[in-house]
Design goal:
Largest sheet: 5 strands, parallel
Radius of gyration: 16 Å
Strand content: 5-15%
Strand order of the largest sheet: 1-5-4-2-3
Shape: globular
CATH class of the largest domain: Alpha Beta
Number of domains: 2
Number of strands: 5
Structural class: alpha/beta
Number of helices: 10
Distance between the termini: 29 Å
CATH superfamily of the largest domain: Rhodanese-like domain
Helix content: 40-55%
Order of helices and strands: HHHEHHEHEHHEHEH
CATH architecture of the largest domain: 3-Layer(aba) Sandwich
CATH topology of the largest domain: Oxidized Rhodanese, domain 1
Length: about 200
């Protein structure tokens, strides 16, 4: 179990080292940028009461994505995994449990998107990106479980983020890093690849 987990992480590390650029510490996503981004998301949601919350929040995240990239954000230090590695992780969780495998798989797409395509697997939890951007991962454990219906990831678990095409999952990984998580993986293919 642990050797398989380490193998997946080492594959992801090699893929990240060869395919992605890293940010310098001077161009890291600053806390003022985070506050600005959260403020934009909140304001967009408040200004669009006639629009479904997920749609408004997703639109706000998309509009601020360019600003995020302008601050130098490029999923620094977050290994990306492919479909075969994702299948292995899902099998690990299915065949043992979340606690034994050490993985928490989170789909950050909106609930409407997941209803349209279906879940990647029953072991995959749903936590839309706007909630992560608003601080879901720093919530109290009990409040998190009450609001989202599953146990909040612990700091020693590996969070595997997925979305539609691997962009929102990168953002989710950055927010998780800011919340204190250090063991994060990003499924770069997302639902578009999974269901194709």
């Amino acid at each position: 179990m642990w050797s398989r987990r380490l193998r997946i992480k080492s594959i992801a590390f090699v893929a990240t080292a060869t395919t992605s650029r890293t940010m310098s510490t001077t161009s890291a996503f600053s806390s003022s940028a985070l506050l600005h981004r959260r403020s934009l998301i909140r304001n967009t949601i408040k200004m669009t009461p006639s629009i479904h919350h997920n749609v408004a929040a997703n639109a706000a995240v998309k509009r601020t994505s360019q600003q995020y990239m302008n601050f130098g954000g490029e999923a620094e230090g977050i290994p990306r995994i492919n479909k075969s590695a994702m299948k292995e992780i899902i099998e690990d969780v299915e065949n043992s449990s979340r606690g034994e495998s050490g993985y928490v798989i989170i789909d950050v797409r909106g609930k409407d998107e997941i209803q349209f395509t279906g879940k990647l697997n029953d072991v995959v939890e749903t936590l839309p990106l706007p909630y992560i951007a608003e601080g879901a991962l720093v919530m109290d454990d009990e409040d998190f479980k009450e609001q989202f219906g599953f146990e909040k990831p612990s700091l020693d678990e590996t969070i595997v983020f997925s979305c539609a095409a691997g962009i929102r999952s990168q953002h989710a990984g950055q927010f998780a890093k800011m919340a204190g998580y250090t063991d994060i993986l990003d499924y770069m293919g997302g639902a578009n690849e999974w269901f194709s």
